[in-house]
Amino acid sequence: MELLFKSAFSVGLLFLTSFILYLFNRFWVRPQRLRSKLRTQGLRGPSPSFLLGNTPDFIRFQPKDIKALTQDGEATHDWARFTFPLFDHWTKQYGQRYNFALGTYQVVYITDPHLAKEISLSTSLKLGKPFFLQKNSETLLGKGILTSDGEFWTHQRKTIAPEFYADKVKNLVHIMLDSANKLINTWETEIEKQSGTANIKVDEDLQSFASIVISETLFGHSNSKVINELQSRFKRLERAMKTPLLVHSNQEQFREMEIEERDTFTDYELYYKAIINGAKMSAPGLAAAEQLIVDNCKNVYLAGLESTANTAAWTLMLLATHPEWQDRARAEFVGESLPDATMLGKMKVLTSVIQESLRLYPPGPFIARETLEDMKFGDLEIPKGVGVWVAVMPLHHDPELWGPDPSKFNPDRFANGIGSACKIPQAYIPFGNGPHICAGQLFAMLEIKVVLAIILSKFSFSLDANYVHSPVMENIIRPGHGVNLIMQKLTK
Ligand code: HEM
Q1: Which of 34, 56, 184, 289 is least surrounded, with the fewest CB atoms within 10 Å of its CB?
Q2: What are the binding positions for heme in this chain (predicted)?
Q3: Rounded CA gap, 353 and 340, in Å?
Q4: What's the 3-state SS for 407-440?
Q5: Model pTM score
Q6: Which atom of ligand 1 is nearest to the CA of 434?
Q7: Which residue's C-alpha comes closest to atom 39 of ligand 1?
Q8: What are the backbone dihedrals phi and psi of residue 337, each rounded to the nearest 5 degrees, phi first?
């Protein structure tokens, strides 16, 4: 009996010692080793606290009160230093590449355009999506194209991306036109009701416009209960995800929603067969394939909705405050009939205006990756398991790349394309870079052009005097207080 007790005690002690050693290695030795590999290459950064890393710094450096980011009565386009004050502070201290820690997770933060270029040129599958992002967004997005890596992602990308190539996308202009015309009709009715001038909250209406476009594209219809349900679920989930405790306490509710979603989606005749084929290729078995169909519907729907609607809203805000650009863009299609893909392709001013809007207000502030193996970019060796964050806004505002006025709205800089606008074109990254570059960028550009072309041809507009400029980070960069425009019908 005593022997048995002693053996059990020894096994228990061994187990406990191994566990303590594991924790010691995982939370102390490994982060120290990774950090010292980075620091010996000259990478500096703030000192982390034990276990918490630099998380307390983020709590101390909350964004300032950015209710009205205006300078001399004009909206400040160099907003990122207010919205992300800590990164701005660290960049001034440590330069264009540095290391910080989120808990024990090491991150290399990059605003160096040469390094950003090296990273964008890497086609290696060893540079994957960060594990913590995959985990955080799993409740919302499952395991679709947006969050997956390696071979699993390659299969999905190969089947989904070609559906958004130019030859396919140009056949979808009619969906965009129909949806834009619905939007215009509501605005015209509103303007008539209000005797010729209406104050319209365009950001919300553009969300509905983009939702119809992506729903019609994916599902062949947009008026169903499913789409409305899906939209309100996304909103609820997004709200819940801001408070991690709420996500955990709501797990049961989320699971029920997922089962409902699966039943509804698999009942549908999906217009985009690519999603079905992709699921069959990469998921073993019917249940897994069904789950992947649901996940990718959610992924492409969400990818196609928010960023497009927000970009259109920011562009209208910029055009409202720069009437000369409103006139120049409008002049491109005076006398033209309804736009088609060929005509929209020729609208150089409109293209430049959207490119400049995406430079100043890119929906995603970081392109985040993780090294799945030891990797080398230029002169920098990054060990396995480190986050690699390329910061979009500092690159889009670097005077070395854009000239002396990077914070000014000046679409003319894109008049001869991205190559002549920016000294290192790989540093202009509103659609991301490398193999994961936005699969829907042609679709998005066409959709934004269609809706702006129709708006510009029907209305003149200025910014509501009560507009408050406050870009906020809520999954993507949004106008924190919306965009209200004073709209009038153009007289012929
Ligand atoms: C202005 C509009 C848009 C912007 C600025 C934008 C931007 C982005 C960015 C930054 C990424 C991540 C790239 C990376 O991690 O390197 C991305 C990925 C993606 N986007 Fe977009 N996007 C837009 C519209 C759309 C639309 C309309 C669709 C589909 C209809 C779409 C589909 C996707 C997909 C499927 C991915 C995942 C690509 C992959 O990981 O292989 N996007 N987008």
Answers
A1: 56
A2: 438
A3: 19
A4: CCCCHHHHCCCHHHHCCCHHHCCCCCCHHHCCCC
A5: 0.90
A6: 16
A7: 436
A8: -85, -165
Strands 105-110 and 387-391: parallel
Give me the residue spans of the domains in the chain: 1-33, 41-489
Name the H helices within 25-160: 30-39, 55-60, 80-83, 85-94, 113-121, 131-141, 150-160
d(CA 241, CA 262): 21
Nearest to 478, CA basis, from 204, 243, 73, 231: 204
Distance 146 CA to ligand 1 centre (A): 8
DSSP annotation of 29 reads I
Provide CB contacts within 8 A for 377, sequence distance 6+.
115, 118, 119, 122
CA–centroid distance, 394 to ligand 1, in Å, is 20
Over the chain (492 residues), the average pLDDT of each successive run of 10 is 80 86 82 94 94 90 67 79 91 97 95 96 92 73 84 85 86 92 96 95 94 84 67 66 50 55 52 60 66 79 90 98 96 76 88 98 94 95 96 97 96 96 97 93 96 95 92 88 95 75
367 contacts 347 by C-beta, under 8 angstroms: no
406 C-alpha vs ligand 1 centroid, how far in Å? Answer: 24
Ligand 1 contact via 218 beta carbon (within 6 Å): no
Task: Say which CATH architecture domain 41-489 belongs to.
Answer: Orthogonal Bundle (1.10)
107 and 38 Cβ atoms separated by less than 8 Å: no
- Residue 438 annotated as lining a ligand binding site: yes
Residue that the structure tokens 């084929």 belong to: 277
**What's the 210 CA to ligand 1 centre distance in angstroms?**
14
ipTM topping 0.85 = yes
